[in-house]
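Exercise: predict the structure of this protein bound to protoporphyrin IX containing FE.
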Amino acid sequence: MIGRFLSGAKNRLLPPSVPFRFFTAAALFYVLFWAVLFWKAGEVAGYRLGSGPVLALIHLATLGVLTMTVIGASLQLLSVATRKAFRGVWICRLLSWVYIPGFIVLAYGMFANWYPAMLIGAGFAGLGLLIFFFLIIDNIRGVRGMAAIMAHCWASMLFLFAAVAIGILLVVNLDYGLDLDQISLASSHFILAIFGFMSLIAMGFSYILVPMFAIAPAPSEKNGRLSIACNVVAIIIALAGINSHQDWLLMVADILGMVGVGFYLYGMITVYKTRMRKRLGTPFVLIRVSWVMLPLALIWGAVGIGGYWPQNGYALFALLAIIGWLLTFLNGVLQRIIPFLGSMHGSNRGGPLLASSMADMRLFDLNAVGHLAGLVFVALGIIIDNDTVIRLGAGLGFIGGLGLFSYVVIVVGLLSRKQRESASGPL
Ligand code: HEM
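Solution:
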């Protein structure tokens, strides 16, 4: 599968401007995320519900960084994996024009508690995600083979659809007070978006990307199928538990989720152990940390379901799932994907481009150290309920974010220069 992936990769790559606009935006919003966290550190630890700076912060991370990266990576890599071109590059461009401004308006509306902006932003961001949904479904429909990966993509997209629909309903409920159960809706939205959409797509892409980057055989198909089956059933049971207020159902879902994650991690550890490339560098430090954070988030979730969370338990849970697992994983993936795509696009014309010749690789070290230090200090600050420690973590994360952003900007500048030199139309 990996051979098949790489053999056709160059011919089916989209113009670099398509994925790189999403990656650049993701890196920018990642820096902004830490900056807002630094600014509003005092409001984070005790957050539970409602609009305001912390909700904007959550969506800067989820819609601004995670979803943005997933859109860029899916548009670029899925057509290569499925051997089917996306339906019209213009639709991919249209998606960015609708989604990115829509997200900015939504995040600002959330930050400022400005409901009309939230509604308009939610409409446009939701429309963008609907376009993304149809692009992906159209691409994976009828694909033969790679059943486990395709199952991850299908499940992830259906959960995204549901998460966005509930997200829009949440905004309408905040604005018009429809008398809906905001807590159950918000919790369902959390499970669907973080574990349904984002985690499943991250796990699905792991089965392609991790063996490719580590040069190792892909994990067994059966492993992937067992993992996705457990995870999908776990998410459905969790939704039933939230909406029927039955904690035991949530506990069953959490345990089943741990089994599903166990299958995933077993597959990834097998890949890691059988790899031919021995030195995997900084990106894999991040990816391995994220693999510890995911089960930790589920264990901490179980502690909460059992009623043993201390005061800031929810904030710690959100931190473990969003920053610890997803942001750490996607930072690691971005650190591998950006040089990989940069060298593929850069070698289209002229000689091949080495990752180290594109930009200073130490920027990635800065990114990793800043991100991990940020994670540790923000977690510590939440645990001991100390704003200064959270602010320190945010400051370190911000410096790390600048490392990633600088790398992306340098690569984009290099690619556009190369494109201009070969005078072959817009980047
Ligand atoms: C157009 C799309 C979306 C809209 C309009 C939206 C809207 C909202 C709103 C209004 C809330 C606040 C609920 C409340 O506390 O009263 C919320 C919470 C949240 N959203 Fe979204 N959202 C969207 C997409 C997403 C996505 C794609 C993700 C993750 C990948 C996400 C992650 C979260 C998280 C983690 C929370 C916190 C839930 C909680 O407090 O338990 N959202 N969203």
